[in-house]
Amino acid sequence: MIIMKTDATQEQVDGVIKEVKRRGLRVDVSRGRYKTIIGLIGDERKIPFDYLAALPGVKEAVRVETRYKLISREYTKFSEEVSEQRVIKVGNVEIGGEELIIIAGPCAVESKAQLFKIAEEVKKAGAHILRGGIFKPRSSVYSFQGLGAEGWEEAVGASRWLQEAGKKFNMPVITEIRGEAQVDLVAEYADILQVGARNMYNQDLLTKVAKKKKPVLFKRHFGAGIEEFLSFAEYIAAGGNKDIILCERGIIPIGKGREYTRYTLDLASVPAIQKETYLPVIVDPSHATGRRDLIFNMSCAAVAAGASGLMIEVHYNPAEALVDGQQMIAPDELKNIIDTCKEIQKLVASRKAEAKALS
Ligand code: PEP
Ligand code: MN
């Protein structure tokens, strides 16, 4: 990371960038009101730090050891562009701000009527963002893959419904991009681009998604450690986009646990990740547990753990859902969860602030 002097000229900044690029690295330039920071992306062993530190206009050349520099808390110490907590604005919703943000909707978009009915109900319950899968990642090739799998026209049609439903009920919308071929389509219609757990390691997809400059909801793979999760989020930041919402959605359960919950919801990851990065962290209790009867408790627990938001699957009649019916809750229950979680969040936030003031 190269920290320029406050009076460094553009020419001097360009000079440093040229030296870095000459050695085959890329840069992340963060221009603040007072100073410019040049983050180095690539193999830093190729960089003679002493030489760069001596270039005109350079204040300091610091080697940052972490594998996720651009999204790290350490970065906030130098850069004015990133603050201690990133607040991502999507329409009139702020993710990472003071308000607890609820993303809700069906697992899959099944029809226009289904989507609009659920959209209306989740909005009434207090949700902020509408979700609905068009390209579903499924373990079996014989199960419903989402309307997107039925043909390009169907994929475009479902994307339009999602956009229309969002406009009608005044909610930004999110849907998953399962492969590179879907990036352009989804980015045209959705406000937030979701990269699912199974694609966490797909660096080509992450780089392509980053280029769309739209907020990305990035889910942790069920076999990934926290460092891996953050290292792959770094691909999105290195691709030029720091509007990343991290989502904990459960990891592989051990032993017989598998019989009781779909995954093991790793809630300690929420405050642990927050210690490492300024990005907002949300929790998906639906895919983590796979059980409707556990969503209330795990939502409360996630908010107590410090999550900035929740992603919850909802259906007016879960029994008729084509995907994930067993974990979908009814809109009434969503309302109860939102009301309760808001109270928990306020309590935790105020006690945390009190403790901080005392320390
Ligand atoms: C989803 O949110 O629709 C989904 C498939 O989740 P995950 O990638 O966490 O399994
Ligand atoms: Mn689902």
Strand content: 15-25%
Number of E strands: 14
Mean pLDDT: 95
- Main-sheet strand order equals 7-8-9-10-11-12-13-14
Helical segment count: 12
Order of helices and strands: EHEEHEHEEEHEHEHEHEHEHEHHEH
Core attributes:
359 residues; alpha/beta; eight-stranded parallel β-barrel; 12 helices; 37% helix; binds phosphoenolpyruvate; binds manganese (II) ion
Model description:
By secondary structure, this protein is α/β, with parallel strands linked by helices. It is built from twelve helices and 14 strands. Strands 7-8-9-10-11-12-13-14 form an eight-stranded parallel β-barrel, surrounded by seven helices. It has a four-stranded antiparallel sheet with strand order 2-3-1-4. Helix 4 (112-125) packs parallel to helix 5 (152-168), helix 4 crosses helix 12 (331-358) and helix 11 runs parallel beside helix 12. The model has no long low-confidence stretch (mean pLDDT 95). Manganese (II) ion binds next to loops.
